[in-house]
């Protein structure tokens, strides 16, 4: 489905993202974190050492300002705190210590057009930053299956080490036919805009820990993004190309309502949203495949 370079790119995403939350999990056990503690934690979690903050962040901070919390707090003003939140796409309420939710929750269920605008805005604001993603899907999905789309954006370098920020796109009922169709549309939109979304299977409880937004997505930590043996990585763009991939795990009711409805919605969304931009696939041929699949479930009244 993709070239060697794209495969390598996807593997690098997994290698970086699989260590996202253990570091924060250990840090959050510390009692009564101050704003300065969280400020330092925010940078170090993303791979910027305390002593590298002035060089990476700017805002007239000097090395002496980051050596202890008291000196750092003395330098804080609203512009510095707001800028730190913008750089790493975290909520100011979390940095203030007033709320446990770290990351904003982006919900594009039923709104693929808004997802396209979101991608365009990210790319326009950071034209030199590489933007890619990973779709975390539940291993052995059931009626409570939820997926999570994470976008990773390069925002700069410390030496030759890239620094990233992350965006959570949530509310994807993975087994629900309607959510599956809109999720497929968003994945296709991303690929068409060269934001390559790769897939990984994880236990539902692990996905939920990230989806709740109260885990700091960070560079270092325990290996939390490992897939499950035997069914780890997959190609989300296949949902826009192959009926069997689109329907995998969709809840079939006794009358196949979910399957029929999902295929109908896929066909409805296809003219505007389902083109992945992969030149080797003809949209007319792909549509015919989905139409033929739908006919299998509509031959009998």
Q: N-to-C SSE series?
A: HHHHHHHEHEEEHEHEHHH
Oligomeric state of the chains? single chain
General shape: elongated
Q: Give the overall average pLDDT.
A: 86
Helix vs. strand class: alpha/beta
Summarize the main sheet.
Answer: 6 strands, mixed
Low-confidence stretches: 220-231
Helix content: 40-55%
Strand order of the largest sheet: 1-4-3-2-5-6
In terms of topology, how is this protein built?
Elements: H1 4-17, H2 22-27, H3 35-45, H4 53-57, H5 69-75, H6 78-88, H7 92-95, E1 105-107, H8 112-125, E2 131-138, E3 146-158, E4 161-173, H9 177-192, E5 197-202, H10 204-211, E6 233-234, H11 243-247, H12 257-273, H13 283-296
Parallel strand pairs: 1-4, 2-5
Antiparallel strand pairs: 2-3, 3-4, 5-6
Helix pairs in contact: 8-9, 9-12, 12-13
Structural features, described:
It is a single chain. With 301 residues, the chain is α/β, with parallel strands linked by helices. 44% of the residues lie in helices and 15% in strands. The chain has a domain at 105-296. Helix 8 (112-125) runs parallel beside helix 9 (177-192), helix 9 (177-192) packs parallel to helix 12 and helix 12 runs antiparallel to helix 13 (283-296).
Pick out its properties.
301 residues
Describe the structure concisely for a colleague:
The chain is an alpha/beta fold and 301 residues long. Helix content is 44%, strand content 15%.
